[in-house]
Design brief:
three-stranded mixed beta sheet, elongated, nine-stranded mixed beta sheet, alpha/beta
Length: about 280
């Protein structure tokens, strides 16, 4: 019986194969060390960031020391500081600018606010206030801006010399805001036309709104019916009519400029003749 000989199953690696295996091991070792290094650096960075953040929150370097307001004329600094809830020395990094901005808007005169931090210790608050143009009667009296927004209720001790807009009802104003705004826009259009022609609102006491039509009540006691539109032309015509009446020494009680069929027509109800000036012949 012949003895069997076993063949060697392992082939001898070539030098190139050995070099490739060594290179793969070295590359694996390199990436493993690199990832480990990144992990260590990240951990140290995270710890350092937290430590830096805690330091920033505790250091007096970011302690609020200056608050500057811009654009406020009606709202006083004392009122605004009280509303803001700001305290000297509080950390500027932790300060909620949006909260301060919303607090500013609770003041009745403030229309918009923008809050900006000025590091390390300053805060700037830019404000835009409402500009009153008329008084709106809605049960109580409210200041109204040029967009028809009643923004502040007039207090009993306040004296305001502005035209009064009447004919609006509070219930309708609340329940039908779009329709109410349409009426107010008509009133404001009449007001702007009067102001443009007279370079101001002197002489205008009231704008009465009835059924969407505007009527002016003047300081002289005259009532001027304007209708729904075309106020610029009508106010210019009104001025010419008043000049002619003055030349004739007549005082009109009612002047109608609201004829829809014949817009050019003016109807005048004369109250009386103007008194002669003292010394006139």
């Amino acid at each position: 019986m012949k003895a069997s000989t076993k063949k060697n199953r392992w082939k001898k690696s070539s030098p190139r194969q050995v070099e490739q295996r060594i290179a793969r091991r070295q590359k694996l070792r390199f990436w493993t060390q690199l990832l480990l290094g990144f992990a260590v650096v990240s951990a140290l960075g995270l710890w350092g960031s937290r430590a830096l953040w805690h330091w920033a929150l505790e250091t007096p370097f970011f302690a609020l020391s200056e608050v500057a307001f811009e654009g406020n004329q009606r709202a006083t600094r004392e009122e605004l500081m009280r509303l803001s809830g700001l305290n000297e020395g509080e950390n500027l990094l932790q300060l909620d600018a949006l909260r301060v901005q919303q607090a500013m808007l609770t003041h009745p005169w403030i229309k918009s606010a923008m809050v900006k931090k000025h590091y390390p210790r300053g805060l700037q608050i830019h404000l835009i206030e409402y500009q009153e143009i008329a008084i709106l009667a809605l049960g109580d009296l409210y200041l109204m801006d040029a967009e028809g927004k009643p923004f502040k209720r007039i207090q009993a001790n306040e004296r305001v010399d502005l035209p009064l807009v009447t004919g609006m009802h509070k219930e309708a104003f609340v329940e039908h805001p779009e329709q109410s705004q349409t009426v107010l826009r008509t009133a404001l259009a009449a007001l702007r036309a009067f102001r443009a022609e007279h370079q101001g609102l002197e002489g205008l006491s009231e704008i009465r709104m009835e059924g969407g039509e505007a009527a002016l009540l003047l300081s002289s006691g005259q009532e001027v019916l304007l209708g729904e539109s075309g106020f610029e032309k009508k106010i210019r015509k009104l001025k010419r009519v008043q000049e002619e009446l003055a030349q004739r020494k007549l005082l009109a009680q009612t002047i109608r400029l609201d004829n829809r069929v014949r817009p050019e027509r003016v109807t005048i109800q004369v109250a009386r003749a103007l008194p002669e000036k003292e010394g006139a012949r």
